[in-house]
């Protein structure tokens, strides 16, 4: 389960977002409105997009038949852009976008984009706390009727629940929506961290979330905690006869809340259904196994921990079967991508 540092790549501007296209393609967004597509076998830039006009805060990839490149939706300022990366030009601009849609107004800006499994909907979150969805065939935009009271950092579609998504915000709250109706189905507020003086120096802002294909849900907080819920897990047919009426991923009945770091947990990603990798703002990396014991009780077990080598502050993290990639900036203020190699995890 161990991983080791292999290589770092430097960019002129801070790395603000990362996404894997496929096993050897890495997308890296920067805060100067630039996107780079790297070949991870040669570490060379294959394609780039410039002049997007603001920080690339999120990247969502989708596969298209007959193309070795993934198409990408990018969140940048108030707009989301769709690019086909098999464009003949090596360097593209916003004029090359296949489509764009304005999702924010006034001083609001986008944070995370997510695509549903069928690639029919694009969800977004924003600084004013809004959560919304774009129906891609018609480009119809709808906002949820309930919003976060502070920045909404993240939004994810819920696997096997075609009308539902979940969001997390700096109001320390996770919201669960029926996005077709625009209504809130459930919510959960992370309690403050107990301390000797009864105070926490950092509020439990929801900084990042991840959801596995089986419905395990995790959130990282500004006070260094990891919240994991097994309540929305899709169990095997032998233990679950039929689909439950409601996703119970925000239930306290099957949850674990752990203090895992001294600083904010700012990025996380699932590998397979039950292995979660996280990073703190200052670059503490850790991996956890999420499982049930013989009695069915839930367990979150730390299996590996290390520190980044060249990144001073972390903004993004992605994982696949062979790599952990971390993005942020170094002591010199330039953007840094760290590549870590890890063992392939196989089922026992």
Automatic annotation (TrEMBL):
Pfam family, one: WD40
InterPro entries: WD40/YVTN_repeat-like_dom_sf, WD40_repeat_dom_sf, WD40_rpt, WDR53
SUPFAM superfamilies (alphabetical): WD40 repeat-like
PANTHER family named among the record's database cross-references: WD REPEAT-CONTAINING PROTEIN 53
Name of protein: WD40 repeat-like protein
Organism: Tetrapyrgos nigripes
């Amino acid at each position: 389960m161990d991983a080791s540092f292999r290589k770092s790549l430097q960019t002129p501007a801070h790395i603000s977002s990362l996404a894997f296209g496929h096993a050897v393609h890495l997308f890296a967004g920067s805060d100067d409105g630039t996107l780079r597509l790297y070949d991870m076998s040669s570490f060379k830039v294959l394609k780039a997009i410039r002049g997007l006009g603001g920080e690339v805060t999120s990247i969502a990839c989708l596969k298209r038949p007959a193309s070795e490149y993934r198409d990408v939706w990018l969140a940048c300022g108030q707009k989301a852009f769709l690019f086909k990366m098999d464009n003949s030009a090596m360097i593209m601009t916003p004029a090359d976008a296949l489509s764009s849609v304005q999702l924010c107004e006034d001083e609001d800006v986008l944070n995370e984009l997510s695509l549903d499994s069928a690639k029919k909907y694009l969800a977004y979150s924003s600084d004013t706390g809004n959560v919304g969805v774009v129906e891609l065939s018609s480009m119809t935009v709808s906002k949820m009727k309930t919003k976060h009271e502070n920045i909404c950092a993240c939004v994810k579609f819920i696997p096997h629940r075609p009308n539902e998504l979940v969001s997390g915000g700096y109001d320390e709250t996770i919201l669960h929506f029926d996005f077709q109706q625009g209504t809130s189905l459930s919510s959960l507020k992370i309690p403050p961290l107990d301390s000797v003086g009864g105070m926490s120096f950092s509020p439990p802002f929801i900084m990042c979330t991840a959801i596995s294909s089986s419905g395990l849900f995790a959130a990282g907080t500004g006070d260094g905690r990891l919240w994991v819920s097994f309540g929305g897990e899709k169990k095997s047919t032998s233990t679950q006869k039929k689909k439950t009426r409601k996703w119970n991923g925000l239930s306290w009945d099957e949850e674990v809340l752990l203090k895992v770091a001294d600083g904010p947990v700012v990025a996380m990603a699932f590998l397979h259904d039950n292995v979660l990798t996280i990073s703190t703002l200052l670059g503490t990396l850790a991996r956890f196994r999420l499982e049930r014991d013989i009695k069915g009780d839930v367990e979150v077990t730390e299996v590996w921990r290390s520190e980044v080598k060249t990144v001073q502050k972390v903004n993004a993290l992605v994982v696949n079967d062979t790599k952990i990639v971390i993005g942020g900036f170094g002591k010199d203020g330039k953007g840094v991508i760290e590549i870590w190699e890890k063992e392939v995890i196989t089922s026992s």
